[in-house]
Design goal:
By secondary structure, the protein is an alpha+beta fold. It has a single domain, classed as Translation Initiation Factor IF3, CATH 3.30.110. A four-stranded mixed β-sheet has the order 1-2-4-3, covered by helices on one side. α1 packs parallel to α2. The chain starts with a strand and ends in a 19-residue tail after the last strand.
Length: 97
Amino acid sequence: MVTFDLREKLIPFSLLQITNVFRGMQPGEEIEIIAGTCPVEAAIFSDVLRILPRNSYDFISQEQGAATPPVTRMKLRKKAVQPTQSNKGGATCPQTI
C-alpha cells in the first residue's frame, strides 16, 4: 500500500504526486491518504475523488482517527481498467462520409 501523509504539505503538489503514483499502480494495489481536519487539508479527499477517473478505483474507507491532532484517512483500491469499446461503427453507421 502506498501512503501519502499530507499533514502540513502543499496540497496542489500533493494532488499531482498522488495522480502520478496512482497511474503507475497495478490493479488491486491500494493507496492511503492521510490529512488533518482543517478545511484546506480535509478538501484533499474530495479533490482526489474528483481528479481520478471514477471507474479506476474502488472506495474502501474514509475514517477519522483518534490521534492528536485529529487526522482523517481515506483508502482507495485501483481497479483493472476495462477496455473501452472501439468506435468502428455498426450496421447503421455510414461507411463513407
